[in-house]
Each structure stands twice: as structure tokens, then as C-alpha cells.
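Appendix B. Raw example, untouched.
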Amino acid sequence: MTNAAQNFEILDGYAADVLAVSAHGTLTRQDYETVLIPKFEEMVRQEGKVKLLCVFGDDFSGYSTGAAWDDTKFGFLHMREMAGVAVVTDNVWLRLGVKTFAPLISCPVALFHMNELEDAQKWISEWEHEPENGPGVSVEHKLPTLEDKA
């Protein structure tokens, strides 16, 4: 593990398209703006889409107001650049938040307990994102529009 800065720690040992982070203490706006967002944007420039592995262990205590806003903004601004998200935590309120907002995220989201960290690592490493032109739906068998029936 390297690049420990503020309360986000960038974890080494993952594929080039996986951004693995561990959160510690109380995340601040500075943590997002100096660590997570620049690293994510750098990886997007290099890889196109990025898979996220986020680990929130026992020493994670929450978000400042600025960090909560940056987290929301980050999610909405970069949603199409995310190929998959794996969240690892036993924190009850964080697990509830992930379950609540996962349906709004355009990529697959998986939630794991801390004792399932290896499963999360395997899931995020093996997940293949959809092709650039969409989810692979065949247009050969689409339903005819009303104009096609006229």
C-alpha cells in the first residue's frame, strides 16, 4: 500500500482499470479534491472506464459536509466513466446508503462485508464492463414503432 494521503489511501496491486481506496477517519472535501478525484480522472484518461473498490473499515468515522457534497457531485459527474463499484464495509448506515443509491448508478454496484474483502477484490477484478456502444442489446429484434406499421 502506498500513496497514503489524508484519509483516502490508494491501494496497490490491482489492474490498471481498478481504483482501490481505503477510507480512514472522517473524509473531508480536501480528501476528495486532492486524492480521489485527481486519481480517478487520471485513470479515466488512461483507461476510459474505471472500476472502483472502496473499503470503509472500522476506523472510518464519516464524512464532513463538504466531503458529502463532493461524494455526491463525484458520483453524478463521473457516473458514465465508472465500469463497476464494489463497496466493502460493515458500517450499517453506509451499507444502507449504498443500497439506497445503487439503483441510481448506471454501472453494477456490489456490497460486501469486511470479512468478504477477498470476494470483493475478485468481483471487481473479474468484472468486464459493457462495450462502448451500450449494454449489448440486439437492435435486430426491436419492437416496431408506429411509423413502421403505417
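End of appendix B.
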